[in-house]
Design a protein that fits this description.
The complex is a heterodimer. Chain A is an alpha+beta fold. Chain A has helices spanning 3-8, 10-14, 20-32, 34-55, 63-73, 88-93, 96-103, 111-121, 127-141, 152-161, 166-169, 172-178, 223-226, 267-289, and strands at residues 184-193, 196-204, 209-216, 230-234, 237-244, 247-253, 257-263. The N and C termini of chain A lie far apart (78 Å). Chain B is mainly alpha-helical. Chain B starts with 8 loop residues before the first helix and ends with a helix. Classes of the chains: A alpha+beta, B mainly alpha.
């Protein structure tokens, strides 16, 4: 093979895009021709430099979080053909609003039906996330929002009278200050669901509800063990997210506690609210653990 | 009337789908971003394109065949998105393709890269026409085979080869000029002319 022929397909050779016979012919030529050998070496070197230089760039920090939140916000998968099988008559009988309300847990008036709805969501969310989701639905969605709005001091006193560690009650102003605009803490209490004790702080803007939940972490419970993605870091603290129907969850853990923010806000806002208060909360909660 | 209590098997599969997407598609975010950044030349556009690509990828993830190359699949979506955006931006000249790639290889200078800085190499890459740049990025940086680069860009394999050849040649030209300006490129130029 001549220099001319070699140079004509040298790039394909370097890209390993030639057949075995041509690869071998070029190899033979390169071994015996210093000039072509040097050309090949320089092209390889340039390609390596280009690759290294271009690959030194990483995605904008935060982009992955944004993408993740956006995907979680689309938590209902595209309709599949199963829905075509629903009788048209049934579809007509249900207005979209009523159907959505039902999907979000509405129309369940008995404790049994409410528990059945909570149980029906269980397979849709990882085990550690479920701990926060079920309490939010049980307590914030199915209980009456109080009509009297106590002050944060009154709520803290109420918590203390329930035997709550006063340091956690003192977090209420911190929580309030980082909630989205118009949201106000209207309730703070200790309650149980499924034999688990929670500190439950509820806030509302009159329409939507946010639950802040702190509960003891049991053996083997860890967000990381059942979730792939960390959505954000707040001062080095990983925050995990999940979405089920209209409910959005963000959570982090300390050595002895699990902390959640659950709401029907958009996923990104839900995450942002917890992220803003996470560092201070984690510090205070850790102090109570020692 | 009977209401289904939940969305049935579709929703259990949903969590699984999310896990698969997180594991197979999301790790390519840096590859996709740097390619989008070099092709569009603009960080905001690159972010928009990557975000849109992931969203489209997520929506059509059911059509992705497990076990096939997810990186190539995501790149195909990315370039589709960029193509679509490009029509809105009116910024990139679209090249006319001719199959005259052989001429490119014969007389091009071969720059010595040791003394070039990364920034100079990247600046030369950025000067390439967008269509050449895309092929060089896919083959040289992301190391896709010609066939996959052709599928990603939706062009014939011959066009990939011609664009690659011309893009690389232009890159060598730019870099030889840069190297020559430091007094180190003459050897490469002379030897190339000897051929």
């Amino acid at each position: 093979m001549s220099c001319h022929e070699t140079l004509a397909i040298l790039d394909q050779y370097l890209d390993r895009e030639l057949g075995a016979a041509q690869m071998a012919a070029i190899e033979t030529h390169l071994r015996s021709c210093d000039s072509c050998g040097e050309t090949a070496a320089r092209r390889t070197a340039l390609r390596q430099r280009l690759r290294t230089a271009a690959r030194s760039m990483a995605a904008t920090p935060g982009l992955e979080t944004r993408i993740h939140s956006q995907i979680l916000a689309q938590h209902k998968p595209a309709r599949n053909h199963f829905w075509l099988l629903i009788p048209v008559a049934a579809a007509l009988l249900l207005t979209a609003g009523a159907w959505n309300h039902w999907q979000d847990g509405g129309f369940r008036t008995t404790p049994e039906a409410q528990r059945a709805f909570i149980a029906s969501l269980a397979p849709e969310v990882a085990a550690t996330m479920r701990v926060g989701l079920q309490q939010h639905i049980h307590c914030s969605v199915y209980q009456e929002v109080p009509s009297q709005f106590p002050t944060l001091e009154e709520l803290a006193r109420g918590l203390n009278s329930q035997g709550q560690d006063a340091r956690l009650a003192e977090l209420l102003p911190e929580m309030q200050s980082h909630l989205p605009a118009k949201f106000r803490i209207v309730d703070a209490h200790r309650c149980t669901f499924d034999q688990r004790l929670y500190l439950h702080v509820a806030a509302t803007d009159g329409k939507r509800i946010i639950s802040l939940l702190i509960t003891g972490r049991e053996e083997g419970e860890a967000f990381e063990s059942d979730l792939r993605g960390v959505a954000a870091q707040a001062a080095g603290l990983p925050i995990y997210v999940a979405g089920v129907r209209r409910f959005q969850l963000a959570g982090f853990e300390t050595p002895k506690h699990l902390v959640y923010l659950v709401s029907d806000l958009p996923a990104a806002e839900n995450l942002a609210a917890l992220r803003a208060m996470a560092s201070e909360m984690a510090r205070t909660i850790r102090n109570t653990e020692t | 009337m009977q209401f289904p209590a939940s969305e049935g098997s579709g929703t259990g599969a949903h969590a699984d789908r999310q896990r698969r997407f997180d594991a197979e598609a999301l790790p390519h975010i840096h590859d996709l971003f740097r390619t989008a950044m070099r092709v569009t030349g603009d960080r905001t556009r690159a972010e928009d394109a990557v975000q849109e690509a992931f969203l489209q990828g997520w929506k059509s993830f059911d059509r992705f065949e497990p076990g096939t190359n997810c990186k190539a699949w995501m790149f195909r979506i990315l370039f589709h998105v960029i193509q679509h955006q490009r029509r809105r931006w009116f910024r990139f000249p679209v090249l006319k393709d001719t199959e005259e790639f052989l001429e490119a290889n014969l007389t091009a200078p071969e720059p010595v890269t040791e003394e070039l800085k990364d920034e100079e190499i990247l600046a030369s890459l950025d000067r390439l026409p967008a269509d050449y740049r895309a092929v060089v990025l896919l083959v040289d940086v992301e190391e896709f085979p010609y066939r996959e680069a052709a599928e990603i860009l939706g062009i014939p394999i011959g066009t990939v080869m011609s664009r690659l050849s011309r893009g690389r040649r232009q890159l060598r030209d730019h870099l030889s000029d840069a190297a020559a300006s430091f007094g180190i490129g003459n050897r490469g130029r002379k030897e190339a002319q000897k051929q």
